[in-house]
From TrEMBL, chain A:
Lineage: Archaea, Methanobacteriati, Methanobacteriota, Stenosarchaea group, Halobacteria
Record-annotated Cobalamin-independent methionine synthase MetE N-terminal domain positions: 90-291
Protein's GO biological process: amino acid biosynthetic process; methylation
Superkingdom of source: Archaea
Alphabetical keyword list: Methyltransferase, Transferase
UniProt keyword Protein transport, yes or no: no
Record's protein name: 5-methyltetrahydropteroyltriglutamate--homocysteine methyltransferase
InterPro entries, A to Z: Cbl-indep_Met_Synth_N, UROD/MetE-like_sf
Organism: Halorubrum persicum
Automatic annotation (TrEMBL), chain B:
Coiled coil: none
Name of the featured protein: Methionine synthase
Domain Cobalamin-independent methionine synthase MetE C-terminal/archaeal: 24-337
UniProt keyword Metal-binding, yes or no: yes
Taxonomic lineage: Archaea, Methanobacteriati, Methanobacteriota, Stenosarchaea group, Halobacteria
CDD domains in the cross-refs: CIMS_C_terminal_like
Organism in which the protein naturally occurs: Halorubrum persicum
Cofactor needs: Zn(2+)
Record's keyword terms, sorted: Metal-binding, Zinc
Length: 333, 357
C-alpha cells in the first residue's frame, strides 16, 4: 500500500510584515542581500519568520515540515552566495522567471559552511517533535549550473566539488526524514548527451550523505527520456520528483511507462507559479490517475508536492496551497 | 506591415525649429518622482493624517505640471508627465481593468517586490485609464504630449492567469481593451502613443503574439496618430526582422546600455519603421557629455536616415537622481540639435555616419 505524503521543498514567500521589516533592516540593493553573517536584529526577524512557516505547515497538516528558507535571498543559489569562498557578482535571471539572484562566483575551495544545518537546527527546535523534518538543498547539477567557476577551472571537477560540498553540509544536518534536492536545471539545461552520468554521480554523492528518503525534485516540465532513465538508475534517489503542471505531462507519463520509476515518487501537482488554488479532490484524482499509468504493484511513497518553490506566490495563496496538499493527502487516505 | 511614419512625424517639428534636419526628441516616459510626492503617496494611507484623496490629487497635478515643464525646459519636442500618477507599470493598469485582483506583493529579487495581480475572470473595459491624465498634461504643455501605455503582452504575462485557457488568449482580449483606450485618447487629441512591452525581451519567441496584439491595438487608428513600440534589454536578433511586419510607426529600443553592439542586427534587411534610439543610459548615474551622445546618435544613422530617426533615452529614467535625469535629457537635446546642424552643413555623411568629416 502506497503511503501518501504531503510535503513541499520549501522556499516560501516572506510574510508581508517581514518583507517590510527586513527590507528596512537590510536595504534594497545588491550589496544589502544576505551574506551569512547578519546582525542580531536580522537574525531575530528571521527567527520569527521561521516560526511562522512552521506554524503554517503544522496548521495545514503537512506530513513533512521544512524550515521554509526565508533567508534564501538568492533562491536555491543560497548555499553558495553565503559561502566564504564565493564572491557575488551581478544580478542574473533565475530560470525563465521575472526573478533574479546574485551570480555566485566561486573563487576558492568550497569547504564546510554549516549555514543550512544551523537553520535546520532552529527549525527542529520549533517543530518540537510534532512532525518529521524535511531538509532542502539545491541539487549539485543545478547549483553548478547557476554558479560561475573561477577556481576549479574544470567543469567536471567543479560539479564534483559542489557535490562534495553539499554532502558535507548534509552530514551536519540534524535528524531529518526527507531530503529534497532541487534540480530544475536538469529540465531547463540538461547535461549534454553522454554527460548524464557525471550529473547523476554528483547527485548520488549528496544522496549518500544521508539515511533519509532523498527526493530529487525537477521542475519546469518533463525530463528528457535518456536523462530520466539515468536518474532512475544512478542518482541514488528514493524518489524522483516530476512536474505534472508545466510542460507536456504525456512526456512524463511516457518516461515512467517506458523506463520505470524510483521506489517512491514525488508529484508536482499544485502550481507554484499560479494563484489559482487547486481543489484537494482534483489533486487526489491526479495522484490516482498518475499512479495508475504505471504497471507496478505500487510505490513505497508518493509525495504530493508543488511543482516549484512557493516564493512566487503572494502569502495568502502560498498558505492555501499548503492546505490543498495536506487535504489532498487526506482525501486519499 | 509598418504604418506610415512619414504621415505623422512632421506634426511634432516645432514651429521655430532651427534646422532643416529634424531628429524628433522624446523620452520613454517615467521620470524620478519628487521626494515630497512619495511622501504624499504614503501620507494618504495614514489614518492619523488629515491628508486625504483630494489633497493627493492636487499633489499629483502639481507633480505632473512640474515634470512636464521640466521636459519642456530640457527642450524635448514631445513631452510626458513623467508618469507621476502611476505606481508601477502593470499595477496601474490592472487596477483599472475589470477582471484583475490583487493578493499581495511577490518577490522579484532580494527585497524588491511587485504587486503581481491575478486575472480571475474575463477582462473588461470600465472607466478610461489615461484620458484625464492626457487632458491635464496637454493642457499644461506647449509641446505635443506622448502617452505611454503598458502593452497587452506585458499586462498578460506579468500577471497570474487564473481565468484564460492560455495567456495568449488573455493578451488578445487585453489588446482589444488597449485599442478602446487608444481610440478614446485619440478622440481627446492624442497623436503620439507608445506601447511598452518589456516582457517581449524575456520571451522573444513570442514575437508573433505581440504582432497579433498590435494589429488589434491599431485597428481603426488613423495614420496621423503615431504608434511607437518600446522594448528593452533583449537579444534583438531574435525579433528582427520580424518587427518589420509590426503595424507600428516607430520602434523604440535601448542600445546605449550595450554600447550599440546590436546595431548591425537592424541593418540587414532594411529597417522599416522609424527608429527611436536610446542614446543615454537609464541606469548609470552620470550625465553623458554632449560629444558622446552625438557619437551615439550617429549609430542610429547606420540604421535609418535622419528623417526616420527619433532620439530618446534607453528606458524610463525613474530610477535616477532627478538632477541626473534632467541633465541627460538636456544634453540629449543639445546633441540632437548639433547633429542636425552638422547634417544640414553636410558635415556628416548620412550614408557613412561613423566616418570622420
Amino acid at each position: 500500500m502506497t503511503e501518501r505524503v504531503a510535503a513541499t521543498p520549501g522556499l516560501y514567500p516572506l510574510p508581508d510584515w517581514a518583507k517590510e521589516t527586513l527590507s528596512d533592516l537590510k536595504g534594497h540593493q545588491k550589496g544589502d542581500l544576505l551574506s551569512g553573517d547578519e546582525s542580531e536584529a536580522i537574525v531575530e526577524e528571521y527567527a520569527d519568520v521561521r516560526a511562522e512557516y512552521v506554524d503554517d505547515q503544522l496548521d495545514a497538516g503537512l506530513d513533512r515540515v521544512v524550515e521554509g528558507q526565508g533567508r534564501w535571498d538568492d533562491m536555491i543559489a543560497h548555499p553558495l552566495t553565503v559561502h566564504d569562498s564565493v564572491e557575488t557578482g551581478g544580478i542574473v535571471r533565475y530560470y525563465d522567471n521575472n526573478n533574479f539572484y546574485r551570480d555566485p562566483r566561486v573563487v576558492d575551495d568550497l569547504d564546510f559552511s554549516g549555514d543550512v544545518a544551523r537553520e535546520l537546527e532552529r527549525a527542529t527546535d520549533l517543530i518540537d517533535g510534532e512532525a518529521p523534518l524535511a531538509a532542502t538543498l539545491p541539487g549539485p547539477y543545478s547549483l553548478a549550473e547557476l554558479a560561475t567557476d573561477e577556481h576549479y577551472r574544470d567543469e567536471a571537477e567543479f560539479q564534483a566539488a559542489i557535490a562534495e560540498f553539499l554532502a558535507g553540509e548534509v552530514d551536519a544536518f540534524p535528524a531529518h526524514e526527507t531530503l529534497f534536492l532541487l534540480e530544475p536545471s536538469l529540465v531547463t539545461n540538461p547535461p549534454a548527451e553522454g554527460e548524464e552520468s557525471a550529473a547523476t554521480d554528483a547527485i548520488a554523492t549528496v544522496a549518500a550523505a544521508t539515511d533519509a528518503d532523498v527526493v530529487v525534485q525537477t521542475s519546469y516540465g518533463a525530463l528528457g527520456e535518456k536523462l530520466y532513465a539515468h536518474l532512475v538508475d544512478e542518482a541514488g534517489a528514493d524518489a524522483l520528483g516530476l512536474d505534472l503542471v508545466a510542460g507536456d505531462r504525456d512526456d512524463t507519463v511516457y518516461n515512467v511507462q517506458e523506463f520505470g520509476a524510483t521506489d517512491s515518487l514525488a508529484l508536482g501537482l499544485v502550481d507554484g507559479q499560479n494563484t489559482l488554488v487547486e481543489e484537494p479532490e482534483t489533486v487526489a484524482e491526479r495522484v490516482e490517475w498518475f499512479e495508475s499509468q504505471i504497471p507496478a504493484e505500487g510505490f513505497d511513497r508518493t509525495y504530493l508536492t508543488p511543482n516549484t518553490e512557493l516564493f512566487y506566490l503572494p502569502t495568502n495563496k502560498y498558505r492555501a496551497k499548503l492546505n490543498t496538499l495536506a487535504a489532498a493527502a487526506e482525501v486519499l487516505d | 506591415m509598418v504604418r506610415t511614419p512619414e504621415a505623422n512625424r512632421e506634426q511634432f517639428r516645432p514651429h521655430d525649429h532651427a534646422n532643416d534636419a529634424f531628429l524628433l526628441t522624446t523620452v520613454v516616459g517615467s521620470y524620478p518622482k519628487p521626494k515630497w510626492l512619495n511622501r504624499a503617496d504614503e501620507l494618504v494611507d495614514d489614518p492619523d493624517s488629515k491628508f486625504d484623496a483630494s489633497d493627493l490629487e492636487e499633489a499629483h497635478d502639481d507633480a505632473c505640471r512640474l515634470i512636464t515643464h521640466e521636459h519642456e525646459r530640457a527642450g524635448l519636442d514631445t513631452v510626458v508627465d513623467g508618469e507621476m500618477r502611476r505606481n508601477e507599470m502593470v499595477e496601474f493598469f490592472a487596477d483599472r481593468i475589470d477582471g484583475y485582483e490583487f493578493n499581495g506583493p511577490v518577490k522579484v529579487w532580494g527585497h524588491n517586490y511587485f504587486d503581481k495581480p491575478s486575472v480571475v475572470e474575463e477582462v473588461e473595459y470600465d472607466e478610461p485609464w489615461l484620458v484625464d491624465e492626457f487632458a491635464f498634461t496637454s493642457d499644461v504643455s506647449e509641446r505635443p504630449v506622448k502617452v505611454p501605455i503598458t502593452g497587452p503582452y506585458t499586462l498578460g504575462f506579468w500577471a497570474f492567469n487564473e481565468a484564460y485557457p492560455s495567456t495568449e488568449e488573455l493578451v488578445y482580449d487585453l489588446a482589444d481593451l488597449v485599442n478602446e483606450e487608444v481610440e478614446k485618447l485619440v478622440e481627446a487629441g492624442a497623436r503620439y502613443i507608445q506601447i511598452d512591452e518589456p516582457a517581449l525581451a524575456t520571451t522573444p519567441e513570442d514575437h508573433a503574439i505581440v504582432g497579433e496584439a498590435l494589429e488589434r491595438i491599431v485597428s481603426g487608428i488613423d495614420e496621423e496618430v503615431r504608434i511607437g513600440l518600446h522594448v528593452c534589454y533583449g537579444d534583438y536578433s531574435r525579433i528582427y526582422p520580424e518587427i518589420n511586419d509590426y503595424p507600428i510607426d516607430e520602434f523604440d529600443v535601448e542600445l546605449c546600455n550595450g554600447d550599440f553592439e546590436q546595431i548591425p542586427t537592424f541593418t540587414d534587411p532594411e529597417f522599416e519603421p522609424d527608429l527611436a534610439l536610446g542614446v543615454v543610459d537609464a541606469h548609470t548615474a552620470e550625465v553623458e557629455p554632449v560629444a558622446e551622445i552625438k557619437e551615439n546618435i550617429r549609430q542610429g544613422l547606420r540604421v535609418v536616415p535622419p528623417e526616420k530617426l527619433t532620439i530618446s533615452p534607453d528606458c524610463g529614467l525613474k530610477l535616477l537622481p532627478r538632477d541626473i535625469a534632467y541633465g541627460k535629457m538636456e544634453n540629449m537635446v543639445t546633441a540632437a540639435r548639433e547633429v542636425e546642424a552638422e547634417i544640414d552643413a553636410g558635415e556628416i555623411d548620412v550614408d557613412n555616419p561613423l566616418a570622420d568629416d
